[in-house]
Write a structure and sequence with these properties.
heterodimer; A: 214 residues; alpha/beta; five-stranded mixed beta sheet; two-stranded antiparallel ribbon; 36% helix; globular; B: 152 residues; alpha+beta; elongated
Chain lengths: 214, 152
């Protein structure tokens, strides 16, 4: 009970400190981010500078992720919903796949569109993705199904719906990856690192601050 | 002398019976009591190959139980945990789950979760329901029908 109380108090204090800090100018995080090229949902090459004048939130992940990626996109949908229409027009939510082989632009468009049609899915060549990941000091690792005990599931459901094709697809790779959400200003500078657990009001406060920056 | 021996024998017999009764009684009373609460499954995008389910497994009984497996009409089900460490998320497969007596196992986003693969498209529709069969070592099979909901 005491432990829970201490945790709640800690979260409360940290949240309020964050709100207070949000009022201050957000520093440029040098060495994190930069110009890159990727493929958008329509298969067209875009650059970070293509979005100059917009505030960006960039997340890394992949569509075969069952827990954190859909949860993060759900969180970003809630976050986006807290902004006014005018504010939404001044910012973009971006999801960069770490699995471009499976997450083609077309596939990403359908996946991301489930959460919000305005969200942008970015894919590209493996080299392009690796470059973006390195720019943002993010990380990802391919966990071959063969290398993790997931395959050794006890008493799983018989493959009632699986044919040979889907069985092959389900042996596709899983990944560990960075969970940071990068807040980018209108000039492309990284200004804050957030997480799916950041209180919505704190995150929207920072987005608004960057939208309103001259 | 004989009386004393007889009395001692009676006392010994009574104590033995009492101990036996207590032992049998306590063994009979010790059993798990599994309750499954608040389970739901995330409505995945139509192109998704996997999704997650969450809820709470409670054991209000007096003995631990082990979750042996989960089956579903919605696809293959695995028990996973998202581990967050140094800003990285990693998915870990759970081989077995032991739910101690008077305890609960919470499955929630960014932590333990049911991972569904080989999704059955006719089940995963807005407002649909998923049938789950939890098989426990001592409590047997517990069937549950849970809602499919968006995760926002």
């Amino acid at each position: 009970m005491l432990k829970k109380l201490l945790i709640i108090t800690f979260i409360f204090i940290v949240s309020h400190l964050n709100i207070a800090r949000a009022e201050d100018s957000l520093p440029i995080l040098s060495g994190v981010g930069g110009e890159f090229t990727a493929m958008n949902a329509d298969g067209i090459e875009v650059e970070l500078s293509s979005f100059a004048g917009k505030v960006l939130v960039i997340a890394f992940g992949y569509t075969n992720c069952a827990d954190i990626c859909p949860f993060t996109l759900g969180y970003l949908k809630r976050l986006y919903g807290e902004l006014s229409v005018e504010e939404q027009q001044m910012m973009r939510m971006m999801f960069v796949t770490v699995d471009p082989e499976y997450d083609t632009p077309e596939h990403l468009k359908a996946f991301i569109g489930h959460f919000n049609k305005d969200f942008i899915g970015l894919s590209g060549t493996q080299e392009q993705i690796d470059y973006i990941v390195s720019l943002y000091q993010a990380e990802y690792n391919r966990l071959s199904v063969l290398n993790i005990p997931t395959q050794n599931i006890r008493r799983v459901t018989p493959k009632l719906f699986a044919d040979e094709k889907s069985a092959k697809e389900d042996s596709a790779s899983l990944y560990s990856h960075s969970v940071t959400l990068y807040l980018i200003d209108k000039e492309g500078y990284t200004r804050s690192l957030e997480y799916t657990g950041t209180p919505i009001e704190v995150f929207t406060g920072k987005i608004r601050q960057l939208i309103n920056e001259q | 002398m004989n009386n004393k021996v007889r009395i001692k024998a009676h006392i010994f017999l009574v104590i033995s019976l009492l101990l036996l009764a207590v032992s049998v009684n306590s063994a009979a009373a010790k059993q798990p009591q599994i309750e499954l609460e608040g389970f739901w499954v995330v409505l995945p995008p139509t192109v998704a190959r996997s999704t997650a389910g969450y809820g709470i497994i409670k054991n209000t009984g007096t003995e631990a139980d082990i979750l042996l497996g989960i089956r579903s009409n919605a696809g293959t089900v695995m028990l996973h945990k998202t581990e967050l460490s140094s800003g990285m998320a990693r998915m870990v497969h759970m081989d077995s789950i032991r739910i101690e007596e008077q305890s609960e196992w919470v499955l929630e986003p960014l932590s333990f979760h049911l991972m569904f693969t080989e999704l059955c498209p006719i089940v995963f529709i807005e407002g649909g329901r998923v049938r789950l069969l939890f098989e426990f070592e001592k409590s047997g099979v517990i069937e549950l029908e849970v809602p499919i909901k968006s995760n926002w």
